[in-house]
């Protein structure tokens, strides 16, 4: 907002009014000092322009001094318009500065001159005043913070401490400011320890660790301290910010001092992982699952859901707040303080990972699957989509009919409704084209053609097009994997709890999403594509590259020819809804959001259902229906369903589990080989075909990704056979690892 103070209208005031309109500034005009002061106190303008050319009307300097006496003017820019004198020497602007003006403007009624002046003010003094105004908010936050905060100069001269620091240390701010740290007997004087800290912070890295300090009365206290260097003018360290909190009795644990680069704290590629899930279930405790009766096993599942401690920050917040509700006022305050600290993190659902004694297999799996790469570090470019061709309906052979399926294939699909169905037998019988045949049978069983109002021949053509665009050269991400995920999805959809929850459109979306979820997969991870600067990574901005590609390609192929367009007869709004669900489910298979999906499912669905059942509300159908049928929870259930179907290999019968383990390992080996050939960052170095332990990699994957997710899904859908296979496969891989074998199977 701009206030113009001109006693009379003239070309100069008109110029500024025009400039305000052009710049989009709100403009007010005052003719007298009294009206100017009243208008300013009402509107609090950002810029005031006062006419100082004609002293006979009013005293401009006196008006400026009057405005400056008000608190509202602290961040206001005040401009003085003075006459242009060409016949006398330039006068000093010091009296104007003393009166309170920010700068002077030598009269120039040119509209563009006035406009340029306002724009310079906006991006100069006004913007600077906005920042100063924001500082008041920041210092208010510092004053109210329960953490002790100390700010020093680059020479370690104390510039500021907040009230929490005064309370903790027993000093008043006046006793500390402008003094060097060495003058105040606050910190311990262990030279080697201080050298360790200084070696960190002086090179721009933050330091965090345990510190013993002395209060003013001489008492020694233990603090958890974080010291952060602040880079300022010239790219040099200009301040140090120290954040301290007292150590409670229950967390006085010696911590190794760590140097952490401030700008790379969240870089998952530099993290190494230990005790990733901390309180998660011990694998050994799962060996007895599934051996008792169904009701006892269900109670056990519910108990496991309540005991789940997937260490994501949002889960911690829920647990802390729940505990605080039953505590005394002081613990409540401390718990809420901890909750706020956790909420400051950016990744609320990602587990907090250790950094020492890491398991390299887990570390590489997490780095390879849960990040979008290190970005391209060489001149090599991995061109994918430019050279890639897609099969369309017209280029394929005539589709077979469901009634003309050869006997061997029919026999291979006899038990497709059972979990122990052998997808590899079907793969062999169909000469690596299992998706068309299994898709026809499953889609017929669920009445997909009737729902979509499409013919069986259109469905057959669509399945053929989709299968043709899976790369048979991939050892893992091929159409057999798609058929396997489709089978798992259909199996989960047949479970009673799932049937209670989902509508027909959800079932159709789930089966289609499972079919297309990896179509066009190049056999390389998202990290690889980002590092290689592939066209897909550029197209999708290094974000969910493959999953976005799969969804987009699926719809592009479907719309490419009426012969295979299974959506062509749908009503527009129903198609939009179906498309949205399919895309959401395909994107849910991206592993960077794995813990977010699992945590939301546990906290929004598992735990409320478990609470209802434990409170004896099994018969309260309305309460259970409320949990199951809310739109938000149905989305979570569909995401969890396809996620579990996508990585269900460890829950398959042993021989299938072993075969899948070999195939995914080979695909990762091939990626590592190519990364080394192209000079790209090796995102999963442990997957070196000459040194990798497949049993260790499987155990790491199961421990980190599978156990908690399938415990949650089992508690919801009741899957004792899957959990039994999982336990048996864990024993199998542990047996191989215990013998230091790195291969898929023991020697004869």
TrEMBL record:
This is Phosphodiesterase. Residues 284-294 have a biased composition (Low complexity). The keyword Phosphoprotein applies. GO terms for biological process: cAMP catabolic process; cellular response to epidermal growth factor stimulus; positive regulation of ERK1 and ERK2 cascade; regulation of DNA-templated transcription; signal transduction. Keywords: cAMP, Hydrolase, Metal-binding, Phosphoprotein. SUPFAM superfamilies: HD-domain/PDEase-like, PYP-like sensor domain (PAS domain). The lineage of its organism: Eukaryota, Metazoa, Chordata, Craniata, Vertebrata. It comes from Cisticola juncidis. PROSITE patterns: PAS, PDEASE_I_1, PDEASE_I_2. Hydrolyzes the second messenger cAMP, which is a key regulator of many important physiological processes. May be involved in maintaining basal levels of the cyclic nucleotide and/or in the cAMP regulation of germ cell development. Binding to RAF1 reduces RAF1 'Ser-259' inhibitory-phosphorylation and stimulates RAF1-dependent EGF-activated ERK-signaling. Protects against cell death induced by hydrogen peroxide and staurosporine. Interacts with RAF1. The interaction promotes RAF1 activity. The gene is Pde8a.
